[in-house]
Amino acid sequence: MGEEIRKTLKKKRSTAKGRFHRIYGRLLEKIQDEEEAGVVRQMLDDLEHSYKDMEVRHSEYIENFDSDNEDDKAKANEVNHDMNTLYKELCKARSLCLKLTSKENTMKKNHIEKQSLKVKKLDPPHFSGKIRDYPSFKSDYTTHMIPTYGEDPFALKNSLSGEPLEILFRRGSTKCDVTDGRADKHADDINT
């Protein structure tokens, strides 16, 4: 009776081992063909499940060995070594899957970077000294320039021309070092 059970358990273990090797072989083919990472990950999950099933079958089979019998000890060492080989194959599959996934992610990242759209920086609003243009200039400057450049006097300098620019230079030095750096105050000064 014990020999009959052992044969049945050995057959179940062999079937699980065959399933593991079939999935492993297909997975290696897909990795070699550089299949999409999602497909490879799914196959790796199948391989993981197959290995867990193999461990269960292995445990059931090895429990029927007599630890005092020398022949059983040798057979148990052989099947344990076989499980170590299967685990090494599983680890190799994990590593290859990880490499393929990271390679695909790098390629996607490079593709996205190549597709990125480069937009010209916003031209600063311009004020030439016409009193009627000042309210819209001030509104545009406050809305677009201050959030980007803060109260940088050089941003204001780039927005001015003609008389307002000359007034700004007279208030500061020849380098346009405005003492308090408040663009809205200088725009108000230019307006007066």
Describe the structure in your own words.
This protein starts with a helix and ends with a helix. Mean pLDDT is 78; it is low at 173-184. The longest helix is centred in the middle third of the chain and has 46 residues, at 70-115. It is rod-shaped and about 105 Å long. It is built from seven helices and no strands. Helix 1 (2-32) packs antiparallel against helix 2 and helix 2 (37-62) runs antiparallel to helix 3. With 192 residues, the chain is mainly alpha-helical. Helix content is 75%, strand content 0%.
SSE topology:
Layout: H1 2-32, H2 37-62, H3 70-115, H4 134-149, H5 153-159, H6 163-171, H7 183-191
Classification by helices and strands: mainly alpha
Shape: rod-shaped
Uncertain residue ranges: 173-184
Q: Would you count the extended β strands for me?
A: 0
* Tally of individual helices: 7
Rounded to the nearest angstrom, the distance between the terminal CA atoms is 111 Å
Q: Could you report the average pLDDT, rounded to the nearest whole number?
A: 78
Q: What is the multimeric organization of the chains shown? A: single chain
**How would a textbook summarize the main sheet?**
none
What is the helix/strand order? HHHHHHH
Radius of gyration: 38 Å
**What percent of residues are in strands?**
under 5%
Give a quick rundown of the structure:
This protein has 192 residues and is an all-alpha fold. It has helices spanning 2-32, 37-62, 70-115, 134-149, 153-159, 163-171, 183-191. The protein is rod-shaped, with a radius of gyration of 38 Å.
Can you tag this structure with a few keywords?
192 residues, mainly alpha, 7 helices, 75% helix, 0% strand, rod-shaped
